[in-house]
Amino acid sequence: MTKYLLISALFTFSLISNAAGPRWDNSIDINAPDLTVSAAAEQCHKSLINAPEYLEEWCEKAYEMGYWKALVTLSLHNGDGTRLLEEAKKRVAAKEPKAYSTLAWLYGSGMFVEQDINYAISLYKEFLALDAELPNPLVAAARFKLANLYKSQQNWLAVNEHAKYVIDHSPLAYDKERAVDLLELAKKEILIKNKSLNKN
User: Fold this and answer.
1) What does the pLDDT read at residue 2?
2) How many whole angstroms separate alpha carbon 147 and alpha carbon 175?
3) Which of 51, 80, 113, 150 has the fewest beta carbons closer than 10 A?
């Protein structure tokens, strides 16, 4: 199962890498004094598919410069999520909004940890309850993930609630389309359950 998840994650990152621009830029000097965090982060992500021989040095460089999500790429590359898990936990403990989705992804998918759907759900709920101004795209993304996690538990009322939110608020057409599918499925399952209860 973990091997399948790792392959899926690698495929997703390959799409991100190819969509981000040129396949690889050999002209960027890792030791250049004017190297930006964004440039280092981009080289880190692109190297996963396009230049794996340079991945560790670029991702370590990006991490040193403050881009902690470089640990995601490093973990996918070497199959060890220890540093990523520790970093995500530390940042969630500090209430850093963007860290919640990473930690929830790890537990929700079972990537590098034992899968724990309930904990993943609790992380997204804690994120939504943060006393902070949360960007709408992050909120909509969390709601979309919640709808899918609740689907795995067959909690159709919760799927219905979060799918509706995504349809009304997500800026992403793909998420909206998937949310419509989730909403239709939830309504169907709720109807079946109600009919069954009425017969009894």
Assistant:
1) 46
2) 11
3) 80
Query: Model-level pTM?
Result: 0.85
| Residues of the chain scoring pLDDT < 70 | 1-24, 200
Q: How far apart are CA 29 and CA 26, in angstroms?
A: 8
- Secondary structure (3-state) at 21: coil
Say which residue the tokens 């009425």 belong to. 198
CA-to-CA distance for 76 and 52, rounded, in angstroms?
11
pLDDT digit string (tens) for 124-176? 999 999 988 999 999 999 999 999 999 999 999 999 999 999 999 999 999 99
Burial of 19-33, coded b for 16+ CB within 10 Å and e otherwise, reads eeeeeeeeeeeeeee
Distance CA 43, CA 30 (A): 9
Q: At what angle do helices 97-109 and 136-152 cross, to 10 degrees?
A: 20
